[in-house]
From TrEMBL:
This is SDR family oxidoreductase. It is a single-pass type II membrane protein. The keyword DNA-binding does not apply. SUPFAM superfamilies: NAD(P)-binding Rossmann-fold domains (SSF51735). Its cofactor is NAD(+). Residues 4-245 form the NAD-dependent epimerase/dehydratase domain. PANTHER family: UDP-GLUCURONIC ACID DECARBOXYLASE 1 (PTHR43078:SF6), UDP-GLUCURONIC ACID DECARBOXYLASE-RELATED (PTHR43078). GO terms for biological process: D-xylose metabolic process; UDP-D-xylose biosynthetic process. The lineage of its organism: Bacteria, Bacillati, Bacillota, Bacilli, Bacillales. GO terms for cellular component: cytoplasm.
Length: 320
């Protein structure tokens, strides 16, 4: 049994990871301040003896003195708003959790001789001029825009990871996570898949920003979680930045039509002004993940969307 800490445990990725680890008999400690995470995400584990949940903010250094965290062997640092809707509403908290919070988790890893996986983001590449994006590309980020509080904070979090690895040999691994989805996304999350599926099931207009020609790649959550776990397990990932995402590229308009068709929706597709700094093209180069981890996505977008739509529809019918 491994003692594992998950920050952001009530969030989208954190809750999926917690369920997977507990099901295998690991002792899991979860921390969340519920700024964007939801208690419902962990409702299935409410009575689980192998999950200890701590309500708190990892930017607060006092958490480092908690008895529960003394012998933690692995740390998945997933805490942070990830949707533009939320990180733009809370820019200072977003900056803090990815800088102060990251340093706190690195201090804990150093103290416990623990391994740490840091969830960075494809946003580190900004609006990329290189396509697809490989880990050596330094990005094209606007430091003076509405997305900078997230993009730049994540990039600085990577710097903290690098310095703790270089100076103190803390076994850190940095995952640059690309768009991830499943029914676990909040309906009000504001990201593409949750927006489209929610709108389609309500027969509301499906809102596409710009002309829909901008591209993204979408990775089903099970594949993303598998990639993060392989990073934790692999010594070859130590001191490395690795893209975790699906390398199949779709236009946003293609995704809108696919959701509409799969959900048999009567929604109209409507077009709206493109937000500032919205990337035009986004697709990971995953050759490094294949080489170091033996990882690549297994779930095709159409299959993942079918599962997502079915679960959103089931959840909708249960609502009073």
């Amino acid at each position: 049994m491994t003692r594992i800490l998950i920050t952001g445990a009530a969030g989208f990725l954190g809750s999926h990871l917690a369920k997977a680890l507990v099901s295998e008999g690991h002792e899991v400690f979860g921390i969340d301040n519920f700024s964007t995470g939801k208690p419902d995400h962990l409702a299935a584990l409410a009575d689980c003896p192998d999950l200890t949940f701590i309500t708190g903010d990892i930017s607060d250094a006092r958490l480092l003195d908690l008895d529960e965290l003394k012998d933690v062997q692995e740390i998945y640092h997933l805490a942070s708003p990830a949707s533009p809707k939320f990180y733009q509403a809370h820019p200072f908290d977003t900056i803090s959790v990815n800088t102060n919070g990251t340093q706190n988790m690195l201090k804990l890893a150093l103290k416990n001789l623990a391994k740490l996986v840091y969830s960075s983001t494809s946003e580190a590449y900004g609006d990329p001029l290189v396509h697809p994006q490989h880990e050596g590309y330094r990005g094209n980020v606007n430091t003076w825009g509405p997305r900078a509080c997230y993009d730049e904070a994540k990039r600085l979090g990577e710097v903290y990871c690098f310095e703790y690895w270089r100076q103190f040999q803390v076994p850190v691994k940095v995952a640059r996570i690309f768009n991830t989805y499943s029914a676990g996304l909040r309906n009000d999350d504001g990201r593409v898949i949750s927006n489209f599926v929610t709108q389609a099931l309500e027969n509301q207009d499906i809102t596409v920003y710009g002309d829909g020609s901008q591209t993204r790649s979408f990775c089903y959550v099970d594949d993303t979680i598998r990639g993060l776990r392989l990073m934790m397990e692999s010594d070859r990932a130590t001191g490395e930045i690795i893209n975790i995402g699906n390398d199949k590229e779709y236009t946003i308009l293609q995704v809108a039509w696919l959701v509409k068709i799969l959900s048999a929706s009567k929604s109209k597709i409507t077009f709206h002004p493109l937000p500032q700094d919205d990337p035009i093209r986004r697709r990971p180069d995953i050759r490094k993940a294949k080489k170091l981890l033996g990882w690549e996505p297994e779930i095709h977008l159409e299959e993942g969307l079918r599962q997502t739509i079915a679960q959103y529809r089931q959840r909708k019918t249960r609502q009073p």
